[in-house]
Amino acid sequence: MKLIFPVLTLSRGGAQRMLAELANRLSEIGHEITILLPSDGVVEYEINCELRYAADGDLSASDFPVGDVIVSNFYTTVEVSQQASNEGKGIHIRLALCYEPTFLPDNSRSFASYSLTSNLLVLSRWQQEIVQMNHGIKGTIVPIGVNPVFRNLNIREPENKLVVSAVMRKPEGGFSGHREQDYLLEQLNRVRRLHPEVELYLIIPPGEFAESTTLQTLLADERYHIRTPANDTELCYHYSESDIFVSSSTYDTGSLPGIEAMRCGAALVTVYSGGNMEYGRHGHNCLMSYRFENRLADDIITLIKDPDLRQRLARKGEQDSQHFTWEKSTQLFQNALFEIVARNS
Question: Which residues form the Glycosyl transferase family domain (predicted)?
């Protein structure tokens, strides 16, 4: 099949990673894939299929080639995708990588976008239930996966200082409020006060670090070590040198960094974010708390003090993460694709 993916950006991030992984793997199994970007669209992932750019600025229906299926994602790609579909350029399917109305600006527009097509794919049961409750549409679940580049490098040494790490994203722009990064730093600082022997690593996409004055100020703070991985190999190394990985996000349909860190052998301490219930179970393979419990630092300290528990959770997390592969996600995507196309024929 010929599939067109209209995409705003392929900069580093969980949603963009999923688009890149699916597009590449669908291409590998024989589909003809075109990724359509704005004229100034950024591509930071390796892409093994056609990249096409809008003629002028933002995407318009005239930029779309004729295909079998148009796969929209973020709410700003949905309306133009439906217009192109109405012009006969393909069946419109939405792959909703987040549920935007609850936590992003312009929510009246993003809420209305869910009425434009009933062909819907989602990432988790939590997201599926929210959309069905609000819009009456039950999306088909296509879960996140973990790239094989992420693996436990077995570089942790007992004599080394304990490393606690977390991902930080650019706060400017209004797209990171759900990550609760002020709370994250507050909790990490508390850990450092009580356990000064622990190293705190902040993992930041290099492009966002270069753009953000807020993130750059952290470089001068002697409490933190800043890591700016240029690629997945470096990111895998930073996950693998972490004894404990921390996630403070309260609203994620998938939450990729947590499961990637688990795959690399880090013990996960996380706030419940909805989608991370697909792979995280408190006391089984991670420590998970609700935000109102204000327990993130306490859970980190529990694992600092209890190496047996830390290692048990890390081993179980690494084992459980093996169930999440992009090959499986791609197969489920293709199954849903065939079903929707058959239904619309």
Answer: 177-319
